[in-house]
Design brief:
Length: 244
């Protein structure tokens, strides 16, 4: 009961703060969310940190081989990604992020901003603080969040079937322990190894349309028992058994 009351008070404070700030919110956008609350309708031409937050959540809704930048600029690619997200969830697909779009995003995220079907614990079975990798701990954790949102999009596109992540972030010590490559994207926090069902080939094929620039699967050395997806600055796909 105390937690419910505390959250209600928090919501009231957030709404009041938004009103006092005069942020010019379109009616319906001032929905207080534990993770993140958008205070204005966003459309092509907008810019800011709220656009970046939106991009993190819709980056998995792109075309084959495309990658959406997290640059805070609401351009044509962000508009297209928002439109694809809206269409996938039965919303009016106008490419404008307004109350209905935000409400769906609020429903899809937990209080720590992870998508509802994935967690930080799933993406880091190495240590408790995301340290010891190729980037600072905060960067590795932020990269994992971006990966989770792409996986959420992929999960929904596959018919809302559960996806199993067998490995995510690794420190150098954890990576060495499993014989990982010295240049593995796991060291950066943006990689995920997928196992189980759907089939590994189905996972590799589907990953092409969800913003992953690195896809390794069956037929690639040491990848016959999982499909690896990541965001690599140097795009590379290889899953020969799957026609990739």
């Amino acid at each position: 009961m105390f937690r419910r009351i505390a959250r209600l008070v928090s919501v009231i404070v957030m709404l009041a703060a938004g009103a006092l700030a005069g942020v010019g919110a379109t009616a319906g956008t001032a929905h207080a969310d534990e993770c993140y609350t958008w205070s204005r309708t966003l459309s092509q031409g907008a810019s800011g940190s709220d656009v970046t937050q939106l991009q993190i959540r819709v980056a998995g809704w792109v075309t084959s081989g495309e990658r959406l930048s997290y640059d805070g600029q609401y351009g044509a690619r962000t508009t297209a990604a928002v439109r694809a997200f809206q269409s996938a969830y039965g919303l009016a697909a106008d490419g404008v992020a307004g109350p209905a779009t935000f409400s769906k995003l609020y429903a899809l995220q937990d209080a720590d901003c992870t998508p509802v079907h994935f967690s930080y614990a799933e993406l880091n079975r190495c240590n408790a603080d995301w340290s010891g990798g190729a980037v600072p701990a905060a960067t590795a954790k932020a990269n994992a969040l971006k990966t989770m949102w792409k996986l959420e999009a992929m999960r929904h596109a596959l018919g809302d079937v559960p996806l199993t992540v067998s490995s995510g972030f690794r420190s150098y010590a954890c990576n060495n322990a499993v014989g990982g490559s010295s240049t593995s994207r796991h060291l950066y926090g943006d990689a995920a190894d997928l196992t189980g069902s759907p089939s590994l080939c189905r996972l590799a094929q589907q990953a092409r349309t969800h913003g992953f620039s690195e896809i390794l699967g069956p037929g690639y050395p040491d990848h016959n028992d999982h499909t690896h997806v990541a965001l690599d600055p140097s795009p590379y796909w290889s899953a020969p058994t799957c026609g990739i």
